Amino acid sequence: MNNELKHILYLVNETRGIDFTGYRASMVERRVGQRLPFARCGTYADYYSYLQKHPVELDKLIDVLTINVSRFFRNSMTLEYMADRILPAIHHRKKATRNYSLRVWSAGCSMGEEAYSTAILIHEFFREEGLAPDVNLFATDIDGKILEKARKAVYPFERIRDVKYGFLEKYFSKTENAFQLLPEIRDMVSFSVYDILDKNSSVPPESIFGDFDMVLCRNLLIYFNTAYQEKIFEKLYGALARHGYLVLGEAEIPSSKYERYFRRVNDCCHIYQKV
Ligand SMILES: C[S@@+](CC[C@H](N)C(=O)[O-])C[C@H]1O[C@@H](n2cnc3c(N)ncnc32)[C@H](O)[C@@H]1O
Fold first, then answer.
1. What is the pLDDT of residues 57-67, one digit of tens each?
2. Which tens digits make up the pLDDT trace of 187-214?
3. Residue to substitute in 20, 63, 110 for testing ligand 1 pocket (most ligand atoms within 8 angstroms of CB)
4. How far apart are CA 88 and CA 67, in angstroms?
5. Counting atoms of ligand 1 from 1, which one is nearest the CA of 196?
């Protein structure tokens, strides 16, 4: 990454406490480049000076760097596999110790689509078992503004287009030009701001202790360079319970240092079990 870009990222870190220095250089270049015309700057050096004089632009830059793209039931095959195989497997194992509660963490949850999709599947699973849902579902993101939206759970059609019609009817109410998730599912998820790179904690403080049966960390690792990915895997590995499951995005695999600590559960999905 060139020095001008590094200085921009140092400025973001110093002023807003968010560390993007571990993002892949090509990604940073592309994203910072998007802001240059808006600030009428020709070079990264000009943009650095602009940022120093216009702190409001720092927030706009953070918005483009924290790519919030998501949707309900993204990579539907992975979620179907989770519903059909992973949830029953976890439940079966825990039943042996008369512990019916599930602990799940959605890391880098954006507007909550992934956490809520998981909540719907867990809700369905417990209903089919004839049990009340017993789940601690934590969803975290570095972006506090996006979490405000996640709590409201109002979505444009674009973000719910992969929801099955049956679930749409059952779990959403239609507003003028959007869909709102019903409280039944909303109340299953606790949102909190958490930087996955936070050095002072091994799990989100809200969760008190990790010991997660399942961690979803999808489409976040792709933005980081290899060194930062290792740090993130260290945290994810530590947060999982024994034999817990790690669900990654379609373009993500455990880093070379961690691949021997995980077993891929099938060839179709990026779901890994802690060994
Ligand atoms: C592309 S979205 C992925 C959303 C969802 N997991 C999915 O796959 O659809 C990536 C999210 O990671 C968040 N993020 C970026 N850096 C982060 C960090 N250091 N700690 C926690 N979240 C971060 C962004 O704010 C964004 O909401």
1. 999 999 999 98
2. 999 999 999 999 999 999 999 999 999 9
3. 110
4. 33
5. 20
